[in-house]
Structure formats: structure tokens, C-alpha cells
Amino acid sequence: MQRTTSARGITALVAISAALLAPCTVAMAQAGDAVAAPEHGWFRTDRGALYATLVVVGIAIVVAIVRARAGHPVKIRRMPALEAVDEAIGRATEMGRPVFFIPGIQDMTDIQTVAGVTILGRVARTAAEYDAKLEVPTSRSIVMSAARDIVQAAHFEAGRPDTFDAGRINYITDEQFGYVAAVTGSMMREKPAACFYMGAFYAESLLFAENGNSIGAIQIAGTAEPSQLPFFVAACDYTLIGEEFFAASAYLSGERVQLGSIQGQDIGKILAVGLIAIGVVLGTIAAFDPGGSTETAFDNLKSLIGG
Amino acid sequence: MMQRTIPIAILCLSGAIMVAAYFISSAQSWGETVTTWFNILAAVAFVLGAGNLIAMNLEKISSQRAGWGYAAITLVSFAFMLVVGLFKIGAVPNDKHPDIHFAGSYDSAASPFGWMYDFVMSPLTATMFALLAFYVASAAFRAFRAKNTESILLLGTAFIVLLAQTAAGMFLTGWIPEESAFAFLRLDKIKAGIIEHVQTAGMRAIMIGIALGIAAMSLRLILGIDRSYLSKN
Predict the structure, then answer these.
(1) Is the CB of residue A122 less than 8 Å from the CB of residue B228?
(2) How many CB atoms within 10 Å of residue A11?
(3) How buried is B61 (Cβ within 10 angstroms: 0-12 exposed, 13-18 middle, 19+ buried)?
């Protein structure tokens, strides 16, 4: 019965995907005219390839969610960084030291901050269960408000609403290095046993991580800023790299539906690998046959993807 | 029930509008409206943040907690900047009011606000940023320890790139003619090869993963599948 429902759902999704891809087909047909006429119609033709990719990846993710809901097995590889969350908070509890959670320096308009505060919910719940002191210094007022709500909810879920202290979740400053000075100063004075860096980080990443390292804290970081990843990898015990960071919330929830969405991402990766392989083959052949039809096909592929 | 339903509905609607605004020309103004809503919220929340900043630092001072002196400096600086900013205090005399002090232009570099920014804020920020050089050195020292095959490869690659960045790199291999068959042995060529091919390939792989991760996470939030940011009570 479940399988039948799943099959019907997938058929419906295929129909929806065809409907969603229709504007893209129109965009491709108009692509030639778009060069001559820069004015856009109702649909942004210059973003047609991105739209098609988004629809395909979105449909793949929804299909994976539907399959997971129907009872198909969902297998996700272990993430050591997330397995270490309990260990880090447990260590802080045993040592009687606080836990620091830094949600980056961007506002809630940045998806990395959203990902960071969803992980905060899980960290806060564990901290509440263990009765560990959790400090969340923020650099944006809205992040402070969101973090307070999330931590309070975590305390309720842990059955410890009495231990919630809003005074531990503070707004420091919007100024990047002012925030760094305040947080690293607190680190040196309070000596937290565990530090979490989850969000959007820039030049301050290494200042945080090296200070945390110098006080012997267990450090778990997660960001999607490629330029900051090497710093976190060098100075932290565990690092969630790029997509792992966005998958963390679903991984920690343990819900089949959320885990299914992570599986759906893999279809997007297969699509990317396939396009790269086709590009490599066409590019190599075009190098030996300049001006031929293969070069035209290669150029078309590049312009389609957005190169 | 409503505490969860309304935020999810707002998020779904805002997310869908932002996606539509990116692809549909006529919907671009809707996206701008959503951004304006956020800016209004952020402005209101800033008052909340400033209130929290004052309360937190006053509490630190009254309870004489570790670092309470810094809290006092923070409050004094905050009050000073707020007063000179809100009252638009200028420094130099105004031509129309030569007898009144602080009647000059408030937005010039010579005003108290500009002076504090240029001669206090900027040097402090630059000092914090300069500390990064020492932290990079200590992090590199740990990262480049030759513990296993991967770390030896990392060490070797970093050594080549660092050497090529210095005058020693040109001194060692700069004599190899650029047109010769052995030009690939020049350190600047090896460095360019590492950065353009090896590093770029690795970075792009990470970027593709990030893009897919963002798409999946956004979809989970817009469809209301991931509600971990909301209270269950």
C-alpha cells in the first residue's frame, strides 16, 4: 500500500517537474534572441540553466523525501564532528566549565546563520540535559532573539525550563573585530571546555579557533566559507565542511524525512559529475579539433551552465 | 499551535517569494518588499540588542565580575558615540555661528564622531586584524607536521607555494629560460599550476557540495520539514 502511494507520489512529481521546467524550455528557445535584445520577458532567460538545475535537484530531493516517508531505508554516513557533540558537552560538564557557541557574524538573512542556529537547538538541549552552562555571544540582534527562543525551547524539551538563563545569550556588537575582541576576551577569562563555531565566518575564524586551542577546549566548527575552512581544519578538532554543515541539522534530528533530503542531494552530485565528465570529454576532443562541431558543442555546454 | 504555524507560513511565503523574484522579472519588487520587511525587523531588534548590551554590562559592573573594567569602558564609549551621533555634534565652529562651540559640520572627519572612528576605532580594528599573522604562523606550525602521507603531501605543497612567493624562489629557478623545455621546473610555474589546477579543482568540488546543501536546506525550511528552529511548546 505504501509502495503504491510512493509510486503515485513520484508520478505526480514527474508531472510537476515537467510543468516547472516549461519556463526553462521557453527560456532556451528565447536564448538566441536574448543576445540581441537584453530586455527580459516575464522569465529571466539568462537564469534559465540555473532554474532547470534547481528544479531537477529540488525534484530529486522531494522524491528522496517521499521514498523515505514511504519506508525505504535511508543510509547516511557517520559524521564524527556531530558524534562528538555529546562528548564535548559532557567534558565541559565534568570540568565545571562553560560551553561556547558562536553562530558566526552574519544576520539571519544568511543561510549559514540559519543552519548554525538549528544546530544550536541540539547543542542547547544536550547542554540542558547535562546541566552545562551554555554561552551564546552574538553579533546581530535578530540572531540573539532567535538564539534565545531556540535555547529556551531546548530547555523545555529537556524538561529543564527552570535552568534557562536568557542572560547567557547576548548581543555584543555588529563590528567584526569588536566582536572578536569581546568573545576571545571571554574565552581567556572563562576558559570554556568546548567551543562550537557554526555559521558564516571570515577573518575572525582563526582568531577564535586559535584562542580556543590555546585554552585546551574541544572545538567543533562548521562553515560554508571555502576560504575559512583550512583555518578551522588546522585549529579545530572536528570540522563540518560545506555540505556537511547544511546536513548537520537533518543528521542530528534523526528523522527519516529530513535524512531523505540529504540522499536527494546525491542525485544533484551525480548530475554535476555527469556534466563535468561530458565537459571534460568535449573539451579534450575540441582541443584536438579546433573550430569543429565538438568545439561548438563544448561552447554551448559552457554557456548553458553559465560559464 | 499558532506559535508554530504562523512562523512556518511566513517563512514558506517569504522563501517562495524570494525564489520567484530571482527568476521572474515582474516579481523582483516582491523580493525587495520582503527585504524591506526584514530591515524593519532588524531595526526594531537593534533596540533590543542595544538594551541587552547596556543591561549585560551594567550587571557585570555591579557584580564586579571578571573583566568588569572593560564593561565600564564599553558603556562609556557607547554613551559617547550615541550622544555625538544622535545630537549631531560638530567640532569646528560654524561660519553662521562662530561663537558657538561644536556647531560645525557633524559628518566631517574633524567631528567627534569622525575623530573617534578614525583615531580609536580604526587602529583598534587594525590591531585585531594584525594579530592574525601570528595565529596563521602557529596554526601552520601544527598543520604542517609530517605525521602521515597526507600531511607530508600538504607540507611539500605548502613549501613549494611559500618558496615561490619569496625572492628565494626566483633566485633558485629564475635562471631557467621561460621558452625552454624545462620551464615547467620554475617554481613560479609550479606554484601557478598548483593554484590554478589543484586548488581550484578542490575548491569547486566544495562549492558544488555547498550549493546543493543550500538548495536542500532551503527546501527543508520552505516546505516546513525542518522545524528545529521553532519551539515545540
Answers:
(1) yes
(2) 10
(3) middle
- Please give the DSSP secondary-structure letter assigned to residue A46: G
Q: Which of B49, B214, B217 is closest, CB to CB, to A141?
A: B49
Cell 538594551, residue located:
B51
In terms of C-beta density within 10 A (0-12 exposed, 13-18 middle, 19 or more buried), how is residue A111 classed?
A: buried
- CA angle, residues B100, B105, B109, in degrees to nearest 5: 125
The radius of gyration of chain B's CA atoms, rounded to the nearest angstrom, is 28
- Joined grid coordinates for residue A296: 561548438
State which amino acid sits at residue B47.
V
Q: What is the C-alpha to C-alpha distance for residues A263 and A243, in angstroms, rounded to an integer?
A: 12
Beta bridge partners of A251: none
* Contact assignment for B215 to A265 by CB distance below 8 Å: yes
pLDDT band at residue A30 under the 50/70/90 scheme:
low
**Smallest Cβ distance to A210: which of B139, B208, B215?**
B139
Q: Compute the nearest-CA separation of A118 from chain B (Å).
A: 5
Tell me phi and psi for residue B191, to 5 degrees.
-60, -45
**CB neighbour burial string for A250-266, b if at least 16 within 10 angstroms, e if fewer:** bbbbebbbbbbbbbbbe
Contact B24 A42 (CB under 8 A): yes
Using one digit for the tens of pLDDT, what is the confidence trace for B154-183?
Answer: 999 999 999 999 999 889 999 999 889 999
Instruction: Determine the pLDDT at residue B223.
Output: 87
Sheet architecture: strand order including A134-138: A169-171, A134-138, A99-102, A194-198, A218-223, A238-241
Q: Is the ipTM of this complex over 0.90?
A: no
Q: CB count, 10 Å around CB of B189?
A: 15
Long-range residue pairs from A157-161, CB within 8 A, at least 24 positions apart, any chain: A157/A125, A157/A128, A157/B232, A157/B233, A158/A125, A158/A128, A158/A129, A160/A128, A160/A129, A160/A131
Are residues B143 and A234, on separate chains, in Cβ contact within 8 Å?
A: yes
- Distance in angstroms (rounded) separating the CA atoms of residues A195 and A197: 7
Inter-CA distances, A82 with A93, A149, A199, A233, B52, Å: 18, 22, 15, 15, 31
Whole-prediction pTM: 0.87
Q: Which residues of B touch A180 (CB under 8 A)?
A: 128
Partner residues linked to A138 by β-bridges: A171
C-alpha cell, B127 = 590591531
